[in-house]
Specification:
Order of helices and strands: EHEEHEEHH
Shape: globular
Distance between the termini: 27 Å
Structural class: alpha+beta
Mean pLDDT: 82
Length: 134
C-alpha cells in the first residue's frame, strides 16, 4: 500500500476528497500526532502522478497551518516516516523536519517509500554477502 502522512486534519480531508473524486477508496488511520492515508499500489500512473502533485501542494499547506499553530501554542517541530514491519505492525521513525523537507523536495513520496522499505527489509532480513554476490 502507498502511504501518505498528514499532520493536519484539514489537509488529510482534502487528500481523501481528491482520492475519492479520482475513483480511489482511501484507508485513513488517525494516530495521536498525524493521519495516515493508505492507497492501493496498483493505481494508474496518470492518477498516481496527480495524487503525488496534490500531496506536495498539501504538504506546503500542512506546513503553513503548522506555522500558524506554532504562533498560538507551544513550539512543536516534528516529522517522521511510517514503517511497516514484516509482522504487520507500523512504527513511526522520527526525522528532523528540515531533513524530511529536503528529501521530499528531491524525491517523490513513492521513491521515499521504496527506499524505506528496502532499508527495513535489509534490517529485518540481513544478508551479509556483498552486493556483487547477490
Amino acid at each position: 500500500m502507498l502511504e501518505y502522512i498528514f499532520f493536519n486534519k484539514k489537509t488529510c480531508f482534502l487528500f481523501e476528497k481528491f482520492a475519492l473524486s479520482s475513483g480511489i477508496k482511501p484507508i485513513i488511520e488517525n494516530e495521536e500526532e498525524y493521519f495516515t492515508v493508505r492507497l492501493a499500489e496498483d493505481l494508474d500512473e496518470v492518477i498516481l502522478e496527480k495524487l503525488e502533485d496534490y500531496y506536495d501542494e498539501l504538504m506546503d499547506m500542512d506546513r503553513t497551518l503548522a506555522e500558524k499553530q506554532e504562533g498560538s501554542s507551544k513550539d512543536i517541530h516534528t516529522a517522521g516516516i511510517t514503517i511497516r514491519l514484516k509482522d504487520g505492525r507500523n512504527v513511526y521513525a522520527s526525522v528532523a523536519p528540515d531533513l524530511l523537507s529536503k528529501v521530499m523536495q528531491s524525491i517523490s513520496a513513492d521513491d521515499l517509500n521504496t527506499l524505506v522499505c528496502a532499508i527495513t527489509d535489509a534490517v529485518e532480513n540481513p544478508d551479509e554477502r556483498g552486493l556483487c554476490q547477490r
